[in-house]
Amino acid sequence: MEKSVTNGGTRDGQNVAQVHDRLRDEILRGNIAAGATTSQVSLAKELKVGRTPLREALRMLQREGLVISEPNRRVRIAELSADDAEELYIMRIALEAVAIRLTVPTLGSDGIAELEGYMAQMDHYMKAGDMAGFRVPHRAFHARLVEGAGERVAVTIAQLFDHGERYRLAYGGSSPDVWPIRRAEHREILDAAAAGDSEHAAERLVAHYASTAARIFDALGDHDPSGLREAIKAVAPGAVKSLGG
Question: Which residues, listed in sequence order, are joined to residue 75 by a DSSP beta bridge?
Fold first, then answer.
């Protein structure tokens, strides 16, 4: 029987954090399908990990909302749904519309150059068809835009960004065929930030998320995102049209 040790690992040398990070990544990338149900025993065998670190990792993922615990040690991966997507984007636009307004005045020329670098990297990876490579600068681009709001806010936003990744991967939010549109949206955000226009940068960021959400709702079927629409009106009214409807 495995026993916990003080460094967060187990006697077989496996670390709970490592198991958590690996399993979380598999879920976020869709390698373990949303809605899939399995047992802890089967999951441990599939991932080639011990059941003790797996159990602790699953508890952490349950608190994050990615995993749902069921009777008899069965595990269900949280489904993708229009309701969940709407809640996710309400939280994202509410936090990020404020965070980008705080960040833009602090960027300076170095910050803008950093963002330009991420844009160039995104172009490179998209042209190469390397979606795994693309995700790194894409994540960094959005993280840099909210950095000025402080670490606690940035950590929360990063988690929400990762949850949004499941929807983007499932519904083609950053696929090569739509990249010209998405690239233009990123460029509008960056140009507004470079001009020092916090309000316009916030509006363009919210419009970017609204158009992503609209794509998700279209894919998931009939859904009236009335809550998201009201949230957008509250933080960036000019972006409401990007939600459609």
Answer: 38, 69
Contact between 167 and 85 (Cβ < 8 Å) = yes
In a domain, 231, yes or no: yes
Task: Find, among 123, 78, 82, the residue nearest to 243 by Cα.
Answer: 82
* 218 and 165 both lie in a single domain: yes
HEC profile of 163-230: HHHHHHHHHCCCCCCCHHHHHHHHHHHHHHHHCCCHHHHHHHHHHHHHHHHHHHHHHHCCCCCHHHHH
Q: For residue range 65-122, what is the model confidence (pLDDT) as tens digits?
A: 999 988 888 999 999 999 999 999 999 999 999 999 999 999 999 999 999 999 999 9
Tens-digit pLDDT profile for residues 157-197? 999 999 998 998 888 666 788 899 999 999 999 999 999 99
Q: What is the pTM of this model?
A: 0.87
CATH number of the domain to which 69 belongs: 1.10.10.10
CATH number at residue 119: 1.20.120.530
Residue 30: which domain range?
16-77
Q: Listing from the earlier edge strand, what are the strands of the sheet with 74-77?
A: 37-39, 74-77, 67-70
193 and 112 in a common domain: yes
